[in-house]
Each structure stands twice: as structure tokens, then as C-alpha cells.
Design a protein that fits this description.
Elements: E1 2-5, E2 13-14, H1 15-21, E3 30-32, H2 40-44, H3 51-63, H4 69-79, E4 86-90, E5 93-97, H5 107-121, E6 128-133, H6 137-146, E7 152-159, H7 165-172, E8 178-183, H8 187-199, H9 201-206, E9 208-211, H10 217-220, H11 225-233, E10 241-246, H12 251-261, E11 268-273, H13 278-285, H14 309-315, H15 320-326, E12 327-331, H16 334-348, H17 354-367, E13 373-378, H18 386-393, H19 401-407, E14 413-416, H20 420-428
Parallel strand pairs: 5-13, 6-7, 6-9, 7-8, 8-14, 10-11, 10-13, 11-12
Antiparallel strand pairs: 1-2, 1-3, 4-5
Helix pairs in contact: 1-5, 3-4, 3-11, 5-6, 6-7, 7-19, 12-14, 16-17, 16-18
């Protein structure tokens, strides 16, 4: 399998090179030159396969010869050591609980797999510096995935004051090979700084840089795995199946589209956004108009210029008409998000986190006009946003022990401005 740039101005590279480089030389995102269909035999046995077995079948074509079959299986056995259950909330509405990994967020899937790919692929004679921008859960998932991995340093950039207390503590208290940069700016600033660093000649001559955001193919491709796993757990497949995805940087949704192109029978996708709604607006008008991000209670989705939109455009040949056939877009306010957290708990005794709540809202809106089986993504444990959630349901949210341990630790960060020069100064020192 070869990987091209979404800007089409760089040569094609192998999976290994795409993972290590992170971003193409022309500043585009790497993307597979083809999306292979999975065989009918795979779908016939899908409901009997484990998460790891599905992961192996899904990723094997994309890894190609860069890892042996046994190496890929061992990597996935190590990374996917938790379950992702599908939970029925009410008839025809299901929650895919993506928060059972080590940091209690969906990004454990992509981050843990990517960390293991990168540790196998990098030049062991030259230390790698992994740059990652986070609006919430990416930082903790990547930091914990790479913690104490020899030969790799991780630098996490995050917007000051715009992540929850627990999220912040999960990646600012680790020490070792993990450094946290508190940026005076937005997530979009952090993401821009990472991309500019990859394009900077001085930095690249001095450091071996790689990325752990969903701009890296090894971060977003593994997310296709749990679409297949969710479908495998669905008992009634007589109705069309739709996925409602809480959307910020759109890597999660991109992985779903790839799952469908690989043969998964998905009827439709729902891009569920908060008021950072540039993609729902694009779906409505055909005009993509990036904006400055706005802070919300679903902070991991506070993205005004989503990177993976370039991959979505690539998938649909830059055709608004084609995209609209498969993706519906909705956006919701914090007030609506708070209300649905209350309503769902009152009616079903199920606790939504603010991101899953947005996905539930999007699914509910879609199902007003469509008779389907709907799966929405619960992307983080509600305890990571306990202050917001407890205010709505008037019930104390139990904080798992592995989260609780972070709260008593002191954060250790470096505060910087929101320019490339600020980042360069830290990295080169």
C-alpha cells in the first residue's frame, strides 16, 4: 500500500514512511492511494471475531509489507487490551462506549496503536520528537501511549484554560519523556503551530519530528476498527444502520467513511457538532468557511478549521453533492447539550458525557425522519467532565481510580505564546 498527499505535490510513500513523517513535504495529509474492499468471508464471520481479530483484518491491507502478519497481531494484542461494548439505550438507539481504555477516551484506540507502530518504525539511532496538539483527550491518550517509550519524546500543545481539569492532569503530571506546553491561544493555534513545525527547515534539520494527531495515518486509520466491531455486536441488522459521530477534527468520521468503502454496510453518517459548526454549514451551503474556534463544554470538538476535512474531500472527489448523499450535519448549543444529558439520565438512567450528548442529539434529530438503527459514539467517560455532568443530573459521578490518581498530582507545564517562534525556542532548547 502506498500513501499520497492530499495536496498531490509530494511523491507516494510507504505506510512506514507516512507514519514516521506524519505530514507530507507539500504540507498535505497522507492518504491511502486505494481503499481495498474486505472479502465477503470476513463479513460472514464478523459477529464471531474479537476486537483484535477485526483490527488485524481491517489494518492488514494498509500496513502492507512494513510489518509481518505476526508482528501486526502482536501489536494489536498489546494495544487493544480493553473492550468497546455496544449498549442499548432504548429501542433502535445504541451507545458505542469508547471509553474503556487506559485514559477513558476513544483516542486510546488510535493513540496506542500509533505509538506501537512508531516505536517499531523510527530510526533508533536518532531520538524522535512527537508533536501533538490537543483540545482535550488526544493529549492524555498519546502521552500515556508513549510514556517511557525509549527513543521518543512527546511534546503536547494545548490551549490554556480550555481543557477540563482531569484531562489536563492526565498529560501534565507524567514527566519522564512527556512535556506539556500550555499555549496562550486556541486549539486551532496549537494545530497550526504543529503543522508549521513540520514545514520548518531549521527544526527538521535538527530534530526527527513526527505527529500523533489524527493528521498521522496511524492515528486515524485504526479508528475504522470499532465501526466494524459496533456492527458486529448489533443483533438486529434488518434496519439500515447509521453512525452519529461527535465531530471536531473529523478524523473519527473519516475512519467511518473508510470502513464503509471497505464494505461495511453503513446507510449514513451524522456529523454531530457543537457551535463550532463549519462542516455542518458546509453540508448545508456547499461553502467551507473555517472560523476561529469557540470554547464549549464539549471541548474536544472546539475546532474551527478541521484538518481531516481535506481527507473527506479526497474521499468524495471534492464533490459537495456526493458528500451530502452520505453525511448529514447538525450542530447544537451548550444549553441543548446540558438538557439532553438531563433528559437521557431521567428517562434511561444513562450518563452521557458532553461529547456523547452532542452525538445523541444528532442521532435523535436524524431519526425524526428516518427509521434506522442508530449508533452514537460515547467518546469519553462522563467522569472526565464530572463538574458539568453532575450539575445536570444532580447525582455524583463516580470517578474511576485511574482518573482519581491524577487529581492529587501537580501539573508541570511550560507556558508559551501561539507562534511558531515560541514553539521553536522550546524545542531547540
Amino acid at each position: 500500500m502506498k500513501y499520497k498527499s492530499t495536496n498531490h505535490k509530494s511523491p507516494e510513500v510507504s505506510f512506514k514512511n507516512a507514519v514516521v513523517k506524519g505530514l507530507a513535504d507539500d504540507k498535505g495529509l497522507f492518504f491511502p492511494v486505494e481503499i481495498p474492499k474486505l472479502p465477503e468471508s470476513f463479513f460472514k464471520k464478523l459477529s464471531r471475531l474479537s476486537l483484535r481479530e477485526i483490527g488485524h483484518e481491517v489494518l492488514k491491507p494498509y500496513v502492507g509489507d512494513d510489518l509481518s502478519d505476526n508482528e501486526l497481531k502482536a501489536l494489536l494484542d498489546d494495544a487493544l487490551n480493553f473492550d468497546i461494548p455496544l449498549v442499548e439505550i432504548k429501542p433502535q438507539i445504541f451507545s458505542l462506549e469508547l471509553f474503556h481504555g487506559p485514559t477513558l477516551a476513544f483516542k486510546d484506540v488510535g493513540a496506542r496503536i500509533m505509538a506501537r507502530f512508531l516505536s517499531k518504525f523510527v530510526d533508533k539511532n536518532k531520538k524522535v520528537t512527537v508533536l501533538v496538539a490537543t483540545s482535550g483527550d488526544t493529549g492524555s491518550a498519546v502521552a500515556n501511549g508513549f510514556l517511557n517509550v525509549e527513543g521518543i519524546d512527546v511534546v503536547v500543545l494545548y490551549p490554556k484554560g480550555m481543557v477540563s481539569n482531569i484531562q489536563e492532569k492526565q498529560f501534565t503530571t507524567l514527566g519522564s519523556n512527556i512535556a506539556a506546553l500550555e499555549v496562550n491561544g486556541t486549539f486551532d493555534d496549537c494545530q497550526r503551530m504543529v503543522k508549521e513545525a513540520f514545514a520548518d527547515i531549521d527544526l527538521n534539520n535538527t530534530l526527527q519530528l513526527s505527529s500523533a494527531n489524527s493528521i498521522n495515518v496511524a492515528r486515524f486509520l485504526p479508528q475504522a476498527i470499532y465501526y466494524f466491531y459496533a456492527y458486529a455486536q448489533l443483533k438486529d441488522k434488518s434496519k439500515p444502520v447509521v453512525f452519529s459521530v461527535p465531530s471536531g477534527n473529523y478524523g473519527n468520521l473519516t475512519a467511518g467513511i473508510i470502513a464503509k468503502r471497505s464494505g461495511l454496510p453503513v446507510h449514513n453518517f451524522i456529523a454531530s457538532a457543537n457551535i463550532n459548526n463549519v462542516v455542518p454549514e458546509y453540508l448545508r451551503t456547499g461553502v467551507f468557511n473555517p472560523l476561529s474556534s469557540v470554547s464549549t463544554i464539549s471541548n474536544a470538538m472546539d475546532v474551527g478549521n478541521p484538518s481531516n476535512f481535506a481527507r473527506i474531500m479526497e474521499l468524495y472527489s471534492h464533490s459537495w453533492g456526493k458528500i451530502k448523499l452520505e453525511i448529514e450535519g447538525y450542530s447544537f448549543t451548550d444549553e441543548e447539550t446540558r438538557q439532553i444529558i438531563f433528559d437521557v439520565y431521567q428517562k434511561h438512567e444513562y450518563i452521557l458525557d458532553p461529547h456523547g450528548a452532542v452525538a445523541y442529539l444528532g442521532l435523535s434529530e436524524y431519526m425524526k425522519k428516518n427509521d434506522v438503527n442508530g449508533i452514537f459514539f460515547e467518546t469519553a467517560h462522563p467522569a472526565k467532565f464530572y463538574e458539568t455532568v453532575e450539575k445536570q443530573i444532580s447525582v455524583k459521578v463516580d470517578i474511576p481510580e485511574r482518573l482519581e490518581k491524577f487529581l492529587s498530582k501537580e501539573k508541570n507545564t511550560i507556558e508559551i505564546g501561539n507562534s511558531l517562534d515560541n514553539l521553536k525556542q522550546v524545542l531547540l532548547n
